[in-house]
Each structure stands twice: as structure tokens, then as C-alpha cells.
Amino acid sequence: MQLGCSKALLEKLNISADETIEQPLLYQWSGHLKIVKRKNILVILHDESRFSFALYGLNAKHFANIGPMIIAGMRQSLLDNHIDLKTVNEYMKQIDHISFGKSRSPKATSRLNKAFERLLLFTDFLNTDETHQKILNKKVNHDLVTFSDGTYDYPSQRIITLLENEVHHDVISCRSYDLTCRLELENLSIWRRLIVPSDTTFKQFHMILQESFGWNDAHLYNFTVFNEDADQVLKLISEYEEVSDDEMSHSGGFITYAEYIEISTCLLEGFTTVYNYDYGDDWNIRITVNDSNLMTERLYPVCVMGEGDAPPEDVGGEPGFKSFIRIMNNQEHPEFNDMKTWAMSQHYQSFDIDRINKRIRHLLS
Fold first, then answer.
1. Where in the sequence of the chain do the CATH 3.30.420 domains occur?
2. CATH of 2-167, one of 1.20.58, 2.40.30, 1.10.10, 3.30.420
3. pLDDT for 123-161, tens place per residue?
4. Cα separation of 64 and 80, whole Å?
């Protein structure tokens, strides 16, 4: 395969460009080199779909072996996009080596520049300790792009469509978690059973739980992970919460931000995870892993079962919720009308699995 290269990339490789070779659109890729945070970053772009991946921190040793590195990065990025192994292997058979040519056209150069501009929007997700930027790549490829025909699409979806048109069958294979999420309340059964892709971050999982339990993301939250001995091993917090060095050292476990960690790294068999939302009302949801290796053709979360109406926002914790239930179950209660009006102001709704699934379907896009 011939990679269409920017002038900066060819200069860094210190090579003369090969004569341009015509290739099928499905196999046309381009490369651009820039400096980000004082290190080289190589952006590889699939011309037709705008799907891309980045390799960061490249040095002389990397550039001496850049062809195999690009092939490995391409393969891993397609797998990270939940394209099944068989399809990826068949595709990569056509890319056994890389040659380097000039950018194919001014339009291709413009696409490369725009791809790099999109990447700069997500540099908060750049992992300076890694070469292959899995989370950064995912963010960039889930960003909506305008195509030359005036349509809008996600690069992650566009390349899947192109591959399916080529092989004439579904190419998605997504490892997912089957999770039971139970709100811990005495004498009340409120739970949701969720199927969630394994590369969902804990921040995204927080949003899925918010929609599944009818909350409004109005308060701080955290996830706490305990090992088999019930020792806290990890605490994941929102980006709006600050942690002092003293809290970090006395936390009884490592603390990090939820937006950078995927659920697959923490939701382990034998471990217990508790989601805590609203430090005032103090809601706790215990998360149980039913299956950590469920293969599906969905790239989005789904609620498959559930029971019970979750408490409304700011109801006053468990005592307030039980008082709320008592009043709402008695239309003759003197506070019923006021409580009903207040519940409506809180957007309180009964458990509705169809409504939940409509709301969580696009949370990972």
C-alpha cells in the first residue's frame, strides 16, 4: 500500500517520494507529521471515511521502522473500532508493506490538515506515555464530520459502512459487559440490567446510569472499586472534583478521573464496584458483573431489564424518598398536590425501558 505523505512527513523520513500509484478508495490512506507537546505525532487518515489514528512520541528508532508501525497501528485501530477480527485480517492482507508517495491531491492535503485540527480539539485525552493513542483516536473518530457531498457522519461509522459494502455482511463484533446495577435501599427493589461496550469510559458509564435511573447529572459522583478482600483499590471521580495531595495519600487506594479509564480495566470478576451519586442524598448503586465477555453487534448501550422507579433529584436521601413515596401513593394526603407539582419540576418519571433505551443509545457517539 502507498501512503500519501505530507511534505513534513517526507522530510522527516528523509526519503524521495515514490511515483504515485492508483489504489482502490478502500485502501487509500494519508499521513501527516506535527509536533504536539514538544513531541512528534503522526496522524494517519483513511481518505474516504476520514477515519484516523495517531502515533505519539515518535523518535529516530520509531522512524527507522515506521512502515511496520503504521501497519500495526492501522490494524489495532480497526479492532478498537469493533470491526471483527476476520474482516480486519482480510483487509490487512492487502497491506503487507507500506511505500511512501506524495499527497495525492490538494484535496487530500486539506483533509489531512482538517484531521489534525480535529485531533487538537481532543489533546486533553493524549496519553504521553503511550505511542498508540486509543482513547484519543476514539474521541476523534466519534466527532461528526462534513463530507464533500454535504452529508454528516462519524468517521468510525463511515469506515464500517465502506467495509460492509465491500464484504456484504456485518463487520461489527463488540465485546460488552452484562451488568446489574442495583440501588441500595432498604425494602425497595430498584435496579437496571445494562449491556455496555467494554471500552466505555467511567464518565460515559456515569451518563448511562444517570439516564437509566432518571437523574439529571446535577451533582458530583464517584466510582469506588473494591477487591476480593473488600479493600478499596481505586476511586474514580468527575472532572469537576478536586483532590488534594493529602486526600490522595490517605485515600486507601488510587484516585483518578473517570473520563480517562475504561470499564474493562476495573469491572473484574470478584471485585465490587459502587457508584455514588449526589453526596448530599448519597445514592449508592452496586454494580454486579454477570458477563464480561458478551459479544454483540451493537456499538451502543442497552437496558434489557429493570424494576422500580428511582428517586427524584434532591428528594432528601432515603428518608425523603420514602416520605415522597408515602405521599404520592395517597391522593388524599394534604401534601399530595404540592408533591406532585414538585416531582414534575424535577422531571420525575416512572421506569420506562423504551424511553431509557432511546436516551442512552447515542451517549457513546
1. 2-167
2. 3.30.420
3. 999 999 999 999 999 999 999 999 988 999 999 999 999
4. 26
By the 8 A CB rule, do 174 and 197 touch?
Answer: yes
- The answer to whether 54 and 41 are in contact (CB under 8 A) is yes
First-to-last alpha carbon distance for the chain, in angstroms, is 30
**Domain 174-309+349-360 carries which CATH code?**
3.10.290.30
Res 201: pLDDT = 94
Strand ranges for 144-231 from DSSP E: 145-146, 152-153, 174-183, 190-197, 221-226
Q: Are 301 and 363 in contact (CB under 8 A)?
A: yes
pLDDT digits (tens, 9 = 90+) for 5-48: 999 999 999 988 888 888 999 999 999 999 999 999 999 999 99
164 with 170: CB under 8 angstroms?
yes
Q: CA–CA separation, 223 vs 276, rounded Å?
A: 6
C-alpha to C-alpha distance for 26 and 97, rounded to whole angstroms: 16
Under a CB-based contact definition with an 8 Å cutoff, are residues 66 and 33 in contact? no
Please tell me the predicted confidence (pLDDT) of residue 17: 84
Q: What is the pLDDT of residues 252-302, one digit of tens each?
A: 568 999 998 999 999 988 889 999 999 999 999 999 999 999 999 899 999
Contacts 24+ apart (CB under 8 A), 140-146: 140/52, 140/54, 140/115, 141/51, 141/52, 141/81, 142/364, 142/365, 143/118, 145/50, 145/118
Which regions of the chain carry the CATH code 3.10.290.30? 174-309+349-360
